């Protein structure tokens, strides 16, 4: 797949996430399939096989969904943590792993310069939906 095609495929896939309902997302998924299955059938097959893992996203309000699908921070953090633990090989005990991860998280957090997009709106929704489970956001 060339770079131009990759960008076009990604753009068409991005149409699925912001759909207002599961039904609308399914329609956009089917439109993607109709357009790209001839060239890249595994993309649609993967989406269909994992659809039950995708649809819980649509149970959240748009503010939360937007913060989820526009965020790569979690993936980036996980990659950084894997990189740190992989380099060590083995650890003498569990506490050594926890200390290493703590120090790695401190270093990772220092690199965060941009806030998560739409985080304030998502945080407000989380506080309403999960009242008592998390502190109310500051104004």
Describe the structure concisely.
This protein has helices spanning about 5-15, 20-35, 40-50, 50-55, 60-70, 75-90, 95-110, 120-130.
Overview of the molecule:
- The protein is mainly alpha-helical.
- The protein has eight helices and no strands.
- The chain is extended.
- The model has no long low-confidence stretch (mean pLDDT 84).
Low-confidence parts lasting 5 or more residues at pLDDT below 50? none
Largest sheet: none
Annotation, overall tally of beta strands: 0
Fraction of residues in helix: 55-70%
Give structural attributes.
about 140 residues, mainly alpha, about 65% helix
Layout of secondary structure:
Layout lengths: L2 H11 L8 H15 L4 H9 L1 H4 L7 H8 L3 H16 L5 H18 L7 H11 L10
Helix pairs in contact: 2-3, 5-8, 6-7
